[in-house]
Amino acid sequence: MIIASKPANEKERLNSLRRLKILDTISEDQYDNITELAAFVCGTKNAIISLIDEDRQWFKSKVGINVCETDRDISFCSHAINQPDEILEIPDTTKDERFIGNPLVTHPETPTIFYAGVPILSVDGYAIGTLCVLHDEPKELTSSQRKALKNLARQVEQLFKLHVANQALEISQKHLQKHNTLLKDFAATVSHDMKMPLANLIVTSDILNKKYSALIDDDGRQYLGYLKKSSLSLSDYITNILSHYESSSHDIEDRTTFNLNDVLEDIVELINIKHHCEINLPEVNHTIYCNQVALEQIFLNLISNSIKYNDKEETIINLEADIHSSHYEFRIIDNGIGIPQDKISYIFELFNTVGEYDRDGNQGHGIGLSTVKQLVESLGGSITAKSELGVSTTFTFTIER
Q1: I want to staple 47 with a disulfide (CB 3.0 to 4.6 A). Which of 35, 204, 231, 272 is the partner?
Q2: What stretch(es) of the chain map to CATH 3.30.565.10?
Q3: Which residues touch 391 (CB under 8 Å, ≥6 apart)?
Q4: Chain-centroid distance, C-alpha 172
Q5: Angle 382-384-389 (CA atoms, 0-180°, nearest 5)?
Q6: 251-401 CATH
Q7: Which residues contact 39 (CB under 8 A, 6 or more apart)?
Q8: What percent of the chain has pLDDT over 90?
Q9: Which residues form the Histidine kinase domain (predicted)?
Q10: pLDDT in tens, 35-67
Q11: Any residues with CB less than 8 A from the CB of 36 and at least 6 apart, and which?
Q12: Which residues of 276-310 are buried (b: 16+ CB within 10 A; e: fewer)?
């Protein structure tokens, strides 16, 4: 028996194998399917996806073999990786000086008499193992079988590339989740710390206006009005930021059963409507099973927008709901100022605004609709908008049943 020499690039080859992070992982169907197909196509009892580690060969997938690894010194595949561009085929191992006396060949119950292995290359081009077939009798592959075995080895390489890509994606997702958590905590902390000084500014401006009005001229009162308005606007902005980041915490599985119209009536009462507004509830008071808090936030935001961004003497809002086999569908239809067609595509993006002013002369912050979209998606749904400028806007959203 001759022990295979180690490749000249052994150090780099082992580093490449370790970077793959696949040694000692559990069996996976996509690899097992390949070894089963290899054994079937080549007409052998055994097939293996073998990876050559420093002192062992480990089997990612195997057919007809009970062990998960063997010593590298007795490995046929250790010889195969020294010819990374060729298939190593041994019709009869008992007649090959490299394997005479090899315990895998002389095994009394399961001798390996035939071997054919195609080297498997890592993403960065190192021969890290093989796809091989083995049999307990002398054998020779046909040209078609050799071609099929090579093609299957290339499929293993593709799976390894996908494995690496998935690992990179998981790492990116973990980093993103970490950064999102930090950003959320930062936004919550900053927003909380800013709300109290703003509240003090608003209260102070009211006190100055009431207690010292005789000492303040018209310009002074106007400046105090600007101060209060700006403080209220900033306070609203901070509240919206907090709502946006809190919206990601809603769980689709946190569900309760409730009557839709009862919830909508509570929302309408909650909104401070300062002018004539007609809000028509759905004709049928559907029983809904979903995350009630999230749905309330969605409707509260959309109805509030329909009221704020309306230039008609009478605001009319129609609320509609339908139940489908897999989802609920809701529509909010208003007679407001509408949304320009060239801006509809990005109204749900964070901090993007249409540029219009509301009924009170305030401009939006571009947070509300982004929060709505995030809430809808957290409930397994989607949201779209359709609008005719100066006539009406319809928001349609679905959530999973």
Answers
A1: 35
A2: 251-401
A3: 335, 338
A4: 10
A5: 165
A6: 3.30.565.10
A7: 45, 46, 47, 63, 64, 133
A8: 56
A9: 189-401
A10: 999 999 999 999 999 999 999 999 999 999 999
A11: 47, 63
A12: ebebebbeeeeebebbbebbbbbbbbbbbbbbbbb
Taking the model in full, what pTM does it have? 0.53
Mean pLDDT of the chain: 87
**Tell me, what amino acid is at 230?**
S
CB-based contacts of 58, cutoff 8 Å, min separation 6: 23, 24, 50, 51, 68, 69
Cα–Cα distance, 58 to 359 (Å, whole number): 71
Segment 166-189, tens digit of pLDDT = 988 888 888 877 776 776 676 667
Kindly tell me the sign of the dihedral angle through the C-alpha atoms of 248, 254, 260, 266: negative
pLDDT > 60? residue 357: no
Buried b (16+ CB within 10 A) or exposed e, 348-361: beeebbbebebbee
- Locate CATH 3.30.450.40 in the chain: 10-163
Handedness of CA 40, 42, 44, 48 (dihedral sign): negative
Segment 260-296, tens digit of pLDDT: 999 999 888 877 676 788 999 999 999 999 988 889 8
Q: How high is the pLDDT of residue 188?
A: 66
Assigned token pair, 261: 């119209």
CATH topology of domain 10-163: Beta-Lactamase (3.30.450)
